[in-house]
Design brief:
The chain is an alpha/beta fold and about 300 residues long. The protein is built from twelve helices and eleven strands.
């Protein structure tokens, strides 16, 4: 009898430990979102996607605890009633750049040139269209992901490409030509560009999400204050990072424009951003305003 009781106690203790080590699930796009969370992915069951195609389905299915995603996609699906995910934190801001072999002083300098952009119906493509809406003779094609723009630019198929870090630094490391960059954030009419954030499933325990957010905030601080040690700590965690290389990652980090803000801390910037989008086209986020419940408190 005593042996049975001891066995039951041991089983209970083991089950208790297992509950404590359950990991949150995360869907994250390759590129700057993956680099942003790389230091804390050991805390997660992560799934990496290339480009934005799988993200809407993840929002509607509601199976993931966390989704790193473009803010416009998350907001539009929330407004349409197709997603219950709330914005937990903003992470990525104005990491959208024009890469060209000729100097770009203003966005008007793209007139008459051939360009290649990515993610036409997500934040990058939408912001590029808004940035160039007053520019005459815009000739641009679109591909699915930022990883698809490098080859055509290297092969000189286009005069310029829309690109983001860390792919930008990788391309520049592979060509000898002199190149120039121009940030879309420099277009005067655009608000502070809100690119991607971390969304949480309201069905996931709040204490587990809160615990992870603290670790994520500290992780972002390390990324920004000590890029070299950050890269050294994460480079072996994913083949994507190995492919880019240590020097490219270190060079890219200062231009990632990663800043952790809780949903409530980011609300003022996001309100300006969404108000601008709504003033242009309410269909961009599917509403004339954003419900307060979108912001996780």
């Amino acid at each position: 009898m005593k042996k049975k009781i001891a066995t039951l106690l041991l089983t209970s203790l083991l089950l208790g430990c297992q509950k404590q080590t359950v990991k949150l699930s995360l869907l994250v796009p390759a590129g700057s979102p993956l680099l942003t969370v790389a230091g804390v992915t050991s805390e997660l069951e992560k799934e990496v996607t290339v480009g934005p195609d799988l993200i809407p389905a993840a929002f509607t299915k509601g199976e993931k605890d966390l989704i790193a995603a473009p803010i416009i996609i998350g907001a539009k699906l929330f407004n349409a009633g197709k997603s219950n995910y709330q914005l937990a934190a903003m992470l990525g801001w104005g990491n959208l750049h024009i890469l060209s072999r000729t100097l770009i002083n203003t966005i008007d300098d793209l007139s008459g040139k051939s360009g290649l952009a990515f993610a036409e119906h997500s934040t990058p493509g939408i912001m590029f269209k808004l940035a160039t809406s007053d520019v005459s003779d815009i000739n641009v094609n679109y591909v699915k992901a930022v990883s698809d723009v490098g080859g055509p630019f290297i092969q000189k198929q286009y005069d310029y490409v829309l690109i983001s870090e860390p792919v930008l630094s990788k391309i520049r490391s592979n060509i000898n030509d002199e190149t120039y960059t121009f940030s879309l954030q420099n277009v005067a009419k655009l608000p502070k560009i809100a690119q991607f954030g971390l969304f949480s499933n309201p069905a996931t325990k709040a204490k587990d999400v809160n615990k992870f957010l603290v670790k994520l905030k500290n992780n972002v601080e390390q990324l920004n204050t000590d890029p070299e040690s950050y890269v050294d700590s994460i480079i072996d965690s994913d083949d994507y990072f190995k492919g880019l290389g240590r020097d490219v990652l270190i060079d890219a980090i200062p231009r990632l424009d990663i800043e952790y803000k809780s949903a409530l801390e980011a609300k003022a910037d996001l309100t300006l951003f969404f108000d601008y989008l709504i003033s242009v086209d309410t269909n961009l986020i599917g509403a004339t305003s954003l419900d307060e419940s979108f912001f996780r408190s």
